[in-house]
Amino acid sequence: MDAIVKYKKNVPLWKTILGVGALIIGALGLLSLILFAVVPIVLGLMLLKTEGSEINLESKTFRITNSILGITHGNWQVLQNPEYISVFNTTESITVRAVSAETTNSSAIILLNIFYNTNQKVTVYSTTDIKEAFDVASHFADALDINLLDATTKNDYKWVDKIVFRENGELIYID
Question: Which of 51, 109, 128, 152 is the most exposed place for a label (fewest CB within 10 A)?
Fold first, then answer.
């Protein structure tokens, strides 16, 4: 197993196509010495940007990453005394503003939080797919040798049997 466990969100195909197209238009604009060519380049980079996380198992450090075109950056921080990982169901709100109008859209999202030092936490992954959330959480739990908590149902938190989940993919709870 690698010493660094990495997860990053995939950029959707449509964003990749638009991002690469914007970069090409911007590059052509720069070659033509057009001053506003910077705008499509910045737009292309923003479309191609993706987020993720990395945990170095040897040094027990983590970082939240941003990646553009395969170049990853983020600051390493010490992960002291990891205790458990939680799969948590919540909503994400996005506000869109135009000249005189504003709207807020909410969508369901699942967050993976690693708790350490008694009550500190770091969010290491987010997704909308429950199966993917538990697969990733199981991977982190096994790699860090910590417990896995199912907190997807409000006020009904249960510890997951990691061994059964790893072998069968079934969520069996431990009392």
Answer: 128
Report whether 105 contacts 115 (CB < 8 A).
no
- Which run of H or of E encompasses 48? helix 38-48
On whether the CB atoms of residues 7 and 136 are closer than 8 A, the answer is yes
- Token look-up 């914007």 returns 22
Q: With H, G, I as helix, E, B as strand and everything else as coil, classify residue 108.
A: strand
CB distance 84 to 57 below 8 Å: no
Mean pLDDT per block of 10 residues along the chain (175 residues) reads 72 87 89 82 89 81 87 88 89 74 82 86 84 88 88 88 83 79
CA–CA separation, 120 vs 44, rounded Å? 36
Give the CA dihedral 157, 121, 82, 56, nearest 10 degrees.
Answer: 130
The residue type found at 143 is A
